[in-house]
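Chapter review. Work through the record for LysR family transcriptional regulator before attempting the end-of-chapter questions.
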Amino acid sequence: MELRHLRYFVAVAEEQNVTRAALRLHVTQPPLTRQIQDLEAELGIALFRRTGKSIHLTDAGNLFLREARAVLNRAEAAVRNLQSSLQRSQIELNIGYAPSPTVEILPKVLRRFNKRNQEVKMTLHDLSSPEMVSGMNDGSLDASFMMKPPKRLARGLNFVPLKTYPIAVATSPLHPLAKKRRIEIADILKHPLVGYSRIQYPDYHEFLRRIVGTGTYRKLQFAKECDSGMTLIAAIESGKGVAITSSSLGATAGKRLVLIPIHPAPSPAVVGLAYPSKNFNPTRALQRLIDSALAVAET
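C-alpha cells for LysR family transcriptional regulator:
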C-alpha cells in the first residue's frame, strides 16, 4: 500500500463519485477504479457500497477514512518540516527512482549521502523507467535509481551498476508451483501470468521478451496488467497468476510471495544509478551521490 492509494481512496470517499474524484485527481477513471479495487483486495474488506452512479462508505470505510486522512496529514507535515529545514539550502538534486527494484539499496545510499551532505536538498520522484529517462534527457532529473534500461532508452546516459538480482518466478505460497525448488520457462507458461502494464512499463515487456524469446512473448496472455509493484504483489498473492520478475520484488513482498529460481538461469537484473552522459563532469553534489552509491554497493 502506497500513499497514492490513500489519496485516491480519500478523494473517492469525499466526492462519493469516481468520475468526480478522477477529475479532482487529474487521472482517468479506469486506473482510479482499479486502484480502489486493489486497495480493497489488499485489505480484504469492502470500503464502499456501490449504488448506481454513487458510492458510499461502509462502516469499515468510515474507520479507514479517518486513519487514511491522519496518515496523509502526517506525511504532508513531514514534507513541510523537511522543506522548512532545507529552506536555506542552495544545492538541489532531483532524483528519479523505481520503488520495488531499489527498495534495498536506495535507503542505504540516501542515509549515507544525507549524513555527509546535509546542505543538499534532494527531491525524489517515483516514476516509470521511460519517465525517468525522459526526465534525465530534458534536464528535470539529475539522476535516477533504476533497473538498467534497454539500449534504446539508454542513449545519452551513463549507468553505474550497483546490485544484481536473479530472475525468478513469483507465486502465492498456496500456488502449486510454490513447492518447486526451481522451474523452467516452459512450465511457467502453463500458468496464468500477471505483469506490469505494457503502456506504463514497456521496458518490463522488453525484459520478458528477452527472457522467453520474441516468438513465445507474442503468445503470452496476461490475466492482469498492473500499474505498480504493490498492485503486482496483490495480484500474485490473490492467485490471479504468477509473474516473471527480478527477485528484488521479494524485499517488498516478504512472506506474501514465494520466489522460485528459473532454470537455466537468465542473465540477472541490474539495479544502478543512471545520469546524463552530457554530465561528463557531474556537479559536486551529484558526484557525491555517485560516490555514496558505489560505497554502499561495495559493502
